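Let's do one together. I've listed all components of the complex below, 409 residues spread over two lines.
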Amino acid sequence: MNNKLGVGLVAAVVLVVGFIMLSNRQVTAPVTQTASSPTTAISPAMTKEDKTVSKVTVTASGFDPAVITVKKGTKVAWFNGSGTIANVSSAKHPTHLVYPKLNLGDFADGQSVSLVFTDAGIFKYHNHLNPSQFGSVTVE
Amino acid sequence: MLVNRRSLTRFLREQVWNNRWRRIPKMQMAGFLALIALSAAIFSHSISALTVFILSIGSVLFFEYCFLRIRRVKPFLLSASIVTGLIIGLLTSPFLPWYVVIIAALIAVFSKQFIRLNKQHIFNPAAFGLFSAGLLFHYDISWWAVSFQSWPPHNFFLAVCILILILPGYVSGVYLRRYGSILAFLIVYIFLKYKLTHQATVVGLYDPTVIFFSLVMLPEPMTTPRKLNRQPLFGSVVALISFLPLMKWLPDPLLTALLFANGLFFKFR
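Okay, and this is what the predicted structure of the assembly comes out as:
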């Protein structure tokens, strides 16, 4: 009887918490998110000249630089020079829910993805296809 | 002599030549995990990947032997230890210092040997060791060896890697009959991910990390419900907890949820 009561209590807690989570959770779509098409790939040379864009290069060993600090409203562009498909996803792996705007998805070698950071804070991300590669963006 | 040649020969004949070890579920699981490890090492082209596995397996076996001697228990074929060591190696980044792997192995074996009640350990050893090491050294669990098997596979090798990834499902789902936990977890997890991320494509919802977790770590037989009527609740609880907002302060949402469920369901197996 105690076992049934315990199982019933756990089931009730699961249902209540699940209902609260689904009814209160708001996932905002990215304010500004651009994924470059193959014909408009952003090259490292172009982004160096643009002072409002901070560039992160994806290499075979990870993100370079892994940690950057930018001001609010700055556009950060990730350029894939790793030789294979890369991915930028928000912490934590694999749920990616800490900062959903950073879930920029897969992008091929030679392509780039970018995001304008409009919120202040420290935003960690990783390569979903190789989560040992990670970085962070500090927005002031 | 404690071990003579005759007893050793008989031991080897029974365990290896007669193929008995192949019928042990834990050894089958260890074999499948070794295949995953091999595929990951080949994909990463990294020698350090192989050293992580050697270090993790060796550490777990060493600490297991030591703790068994402390507890005055006769050492036996430690197939479960090999599984624990392989999981630690699959989830610990090869770029971390070597002592992190050893500490994770030490904590994992300690939890298995000493955090027990009624002769049963409470928590999944590999999950406990990895979670604790993540807290101690302030790093997130990398799942490096079970993340590259993306969909759709871009070449034949990746297609084979995906098949290798789901092989453990034979042991956990069919042989050990933990399909209740596995299916419930996957259904609830995919549903929550769809609701919270609005991704409805197979590419968006398929995740090799989640597949590995659901087929290998979630249905660990000693720490999860064996009764079929309790397995769906267990799997659902793990999936639900992994999406809680407080997970962003902890090393890993899946391992945290699993450990919490291990503790919650310990008396309801």
